[in-house]
């Protein structure tokens, strides 16, 4: 499957894409609104960055307890319920006079629930598409996410200015609800991919199987750490330059869209592995200029160039799918999503803490340097590593160091 026409003719692909973009739109508008609201209330870069990316920290709790449900729940029901719960929680954050502590408690609860969404969504995507169509389909999801973020940050900034941060939060709640409706009406009822009841014990067992393979460990670390540090750097856009924050987020989404489009549609599979390390280095390198606080045009250009490097995630996800048994695909992708978002939250917390005692621009550059260092350590095992065919669950656990 190498054409968009064939992809969009796949049954249920479009409603799944619409449901996903509804959630991305809600998170984009809501995150910017809440980050602005918290910064205006507290004046703290740390709390502002945590308001935007802190829910990601709670993903680790979901990854440890809920992920076994990704393959054991009906996809339509799970995605519909999650969308409604995220919308309700976002609406609660818009309540006037809500204490900052209460707002963060709601954020953490939503973060735990969100950890399940990635596994359900991308596990269903792998079920709908053929093996050779997954990379193209995942790239379309990434491109749609980039487009939605471009317009979402622009619209979110406009809503915050024209209405209020709380008004923008209500709009975000409506976007989450719209995604839930799209999932319920557009997806067919289908049985779970795996048998058994979800439980924390089942989650731990499958996590152990996935983590036991040395090749998968390397891929997971490459998916989580370098990008998580860069997202932490991005969480400082508001304290770095409040008036420039929305354009920087939008340009970052545009760069990500460009990278995902080129890699997903035009790069031959036989050459894709060679691009993993260069794209990971590109993701961090341009952010070093923030230490010098360059003019706005240079800052925007650096963000636009750097975020092309997020396309490395597409290639690494494709490799992860090739190394994972079919019946564990949803759990494996959920672990990727939860781990990625957790590391993004860690990056945001680290960025905010650094910015408390140094300039935000220097903190951004420091995190970029750390991302480059991690990529350099992982690079020998990532260069042109051929993807192994999928195996059974037992064999998948046998490739330990």
What does this entry look like structurally?
The protein has helices spanning 4-8, 13-42, 45-53, 59-65, 75-93, 100-128, 134-162, 165-186, 200-212, 214-234, 237-240, 245-266, 269-272, 276-284, 296-306, 312-322, 329-357, 360-382, 393-396. It is globular, with a radius of gyration of 20 Å. By secondary structure, it is mostly helical. The protein starts with a helix and ends in a 5-residue tail after the last helix. It is built from 19 helices and no strands. The longest helix has 30 residues, at 13-42.
List keywords for this structure.
401 residues, mainly alpha, globular
Oligomer: single chain
- Contiguous low-pLDDT stretches (5 residues minimum) are 386-401
Biggest beta sheet attributes: none
According to DSSP, the number of beta strands is: 0
Beta fraction of the residues?
under 5%
Can you write the helix and strand succession as a string?
HHHHHHHHHHHHHHHHHHH
Distance between the termini: 35 Å
What is the percent of helical residues?
Answer: over 70%
Give the structure's gist in a few sentences:
The protein has 401 residues and is an all-alpha fold. The protein has helices at 4-8, 13-42, 45-53, 59-65, 75-93, 100-128, 134-162, 165-186, 200-212, 214-234, 237-240, 245-266, 269-272, 276-284, 296-306, 312-322, 329-357, 360-382, 393-396.
